[in-house]
UniProtKB/TrEMBL annotation:
DNA-binding feature ranges: 42-61
Keyword DNA-binding found: yes
Protein's recorded name: TetR/AcrR family transcriptional regulator
Keywords from the UniProt entry: DNA-binding, Transcription, Transcription regulation
Length: 196
C-alpha cells in the first residue's frame, strides 16, 4: 500500500513537470511565430509549430491576450536565465554580452509586435514593463560588469541606457526591409570594446 501511495505521490509532480514542459513548448512556438509573422499570426500556425492541436493552445491560453502575456513573461525569463548561463559558458564576457544582446533583440522584436496589445488598457499589461526592467536590467548589468572587469569594455556603460539604446535601434525594423537593426546593434556592442 505504501508503494502505491508513493507511486501516486510521484505521478502528480511528474504530471506537473510535464505540463510545465508542454507549456514551455507552446510558448517557444508562439514566440517564434510572433517573431516571424507578428502577433496576429493564426493560432493554427503556433499549434503546427508546437506539434499540438489548436484546442490545446486554447486550453492553456483561453484568449490571445493570455497567450501574449505568457509569451512576454516567458521571454523575459528566458533572457534573464541566459545571462548567467552565457557567462558560465566559457565565452569571454564581451562575447557573452553579445550573445545575450542577440537574445534581447529577439525579445524586443516580439515585444514591439506586442505593443498594441500591451497598450490596450488591460490592467494585466500594466505591470509587465516594470517586470521586464526588474528582471533584465540586473542581468545586463552583470554582463557589463564582467566585461568591464575583464578589461574588454569601457567601465562606464549603464545597463538601462544600453538596453534602451538597443531598443531604440530595433524600433521600425519591421516596417522597412532595408533596415537591419541586428547589424546596428552588433556595431553598438562592438563599439563598447576597449582598444587593445
Amino acid at each position: 500500500m505504501n508503494d502505491s501511495d508513493g507511486g501516486a505521490g510521484h505521478a502528480a509532480p511528474r504530471k506537473r513537470a510535464d505540463a510545465r514542459r508542454n507549456e514551455r513548448v507552446l510558448l517557444d512556438a508562439a514566440a517564434a511565430v510572433f517573431v516571424a509573422s507578428g502577433v496576429e499570426a493564426p493560432v493554427r500556425d503556433i499549434a503546427a509549430r508546437a506539434g499540438v492541436g489548436v484546442a490545446t493552445i486554447y486550453r492553456h491560453f483561453p484568449t490571445r491576450a493570455d497567450l501574449i502575456v505568457a509569451v512576454y513573461r516567458h521571454q523575459v525569463e528566458a533572457c534573464a536565465e541566459a545571462g548567467p548561463a552565457l557567462l558560465a559558458s566559457g565565452a569571454t564576457p564581451h562575447a557573452a554580452l553579445g550573445r545575450w544582446i542577440n537574445l534581447f533583440v529577439d525579445f524586443l522584436v516580439t515585444k514591439h509586435g506586442l505593443a498594441a496589445a500591451l497598450r490596450s488598457g488591460d490592467a494585466g499589461f500594466d505591470t509587465l514593463h516594470a517586470y521586464f526592467l526588474d528582471r533584465l536590467v540586473p542581468v545586463c548589468a552583470q554582463l557589463l560588469d564582467a566585461a568591464a572587469v575583464a578589461g574588454e569594455i569601457r567601465p562606464d556603460v549603464d545597463a538601462y541606457e544600453l538596453m534602451r539604446g538597443v531598443g531604440n535601434l530595433c524600433i521600425g525594423a519591421d516596417s522597412d526591409p532595408r533596415y537591419d537593426a541586428r547589424r546596428l546593434v552588433e556595431l553598438l556592442i562592438a563599439g563598447l570594446r576597449l582598444p587593445r
